[in-house]
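[job 4471] stage=fold_predict status=RUNNING
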Amino acid sequence: MVTGLVSAIVPSYRLLERARAKASARMTKLAQMLTRVRSPLKGDRQSLRERMRKEARLFQETQRFCEAQEAFVAFFEKRMAILRSI
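[job 4471] inference complete, writing structure tokens
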């Protein structure tokens, strides 16, 4: 059994053409996304290392708080965080 979501009704003689056009559009979007993600990584290695250190330091600081720990665990477990109000 195959299930899916129908977004268009296409005549059978145009199906392959339509599928290729959709695949091409998705690949273009993927390439653009990868370019945006990689561009900060192509800069100066020293500044990248410094940004990574800063991010790691900030992450460690937030881990010190119980609420932050619960939020991170809940995120990785894909559930709502149980936060207590003080």
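[job 4471] summary: The helical segments are 15-38, 45-63, 66-76.
[job 4471] exit 0
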